[in-house]
Amino acid sequence: MKEMTADDERLARQVIGLLELFALNTDDTEQRIVGIWRRACTPVGPVAAVSVQQRFVCLARTTLDRLQARHIKVVAVVNFPHGSSNVQSVIAQVRAALMAGADEIDVVYPFRALLGGDRQPGLAMISACSALCAGQVRLTATLETGDLRDSQMILDACRDAIVSGADFIKTSTGKAARHVTPQAARIMLESIADVGGQVGLKVAGGIRTFEEARVYMALVRARFGLQWINAGRFRLGGSSVLDDLLARLGLLESHGGGDGF
Questions:
Q1: What domain of life (predicted)?
Q2: What gap in Å lies between CA 45 and CA 135, rounded to an integer?
Q3: Per residue in 113-160, pLDDT tens?
Q4: Is residue 202 flagged as an active site residue?
Q5: Is 2 assigned a catalytic role?
Q6: Longest dimension (CA), the chain
Q7: Nearest of 231, 184, 223 to residue 206 by alpha carbon
Q8: Of these residues, 73, 160, 167, 202, which one is catalytic?
């Protein structure tokens, strides 16, 4: 492993504060959920958020409060991972997540409808979720850019999500065969620039190392500047990258990493 410079260490610590960890496996248990929350409180400070399925929101919030980590956001992921076009089903999921105490909602945009040439389900779904969040709970639209592939489709999805009220647009669920690419992130950043940088970006899906995280940090810095890089505007998703960052900082063993998240 390449030796870390002082600048590398500062960047690694910054990245940890921007991370959004995931607990989104179909076989997740309450024990696993509690474990990932404990991982979220690292020796160099907390991560930004942890994403869970709607059924684990209450447990997640309770666990974090017990750990005195109220500032770590609990993100409820809905319509995951397939991106159904059933707006009423998604509304029910969002309502349940909000009642359980979710700090944020992450809805998988109905990308298959867009692939079929129909933009209406995406507009309707994100608008309905935005109305439920009512400006009090931040809303992420996950676009599954690896499946959209075509640059114009990614751009259309970004624009539709933004105009419908999303506070963040996110690259991927992490469950698709194709992972995020720098090109997809660039398209999304340009969409955000079109609205004056008032919408945030989440990059997720296949990011596993410090070097990969550095690429996306550089893209954001080049487009919006250092002041834009904060957890309210930019996050990096993926639990695997946390182990790499802690290992490079010499903290992995003390933090009990390697639990598969």
A1: Bacteria
A2: 28
A3: 999 999 999 999 999 999 999 989 999 999 999 999 799 999 999 999
A4: yes
A5: no
A6: 52
A7: 184
A8: 202
Neighbours of 152 (CB within 10 A): 9
Residue 18's nearest CA partner among 42, 39, 48 is 48
> What burial letters (b/e) apply to 41-56, b meaning 16+ CB within 10 Å?
ebeeebbbbbbbbbeb
Distance, CA of 7 to CA of 1 (rounded, Å): 16
Q: Is 170 a catalytic residue?
A: yes
Q: What is the pLDDT of residues 225-250, one digit of tens each?
A: 999 999 999 999 988 899 999 999 99
Q: Spot the catalytic one: 106, 160, 243, 244.
A: 106
**In 117-239, alpha helices (H):** 120-133, 145-148, 151-163, 182-194, 210-224
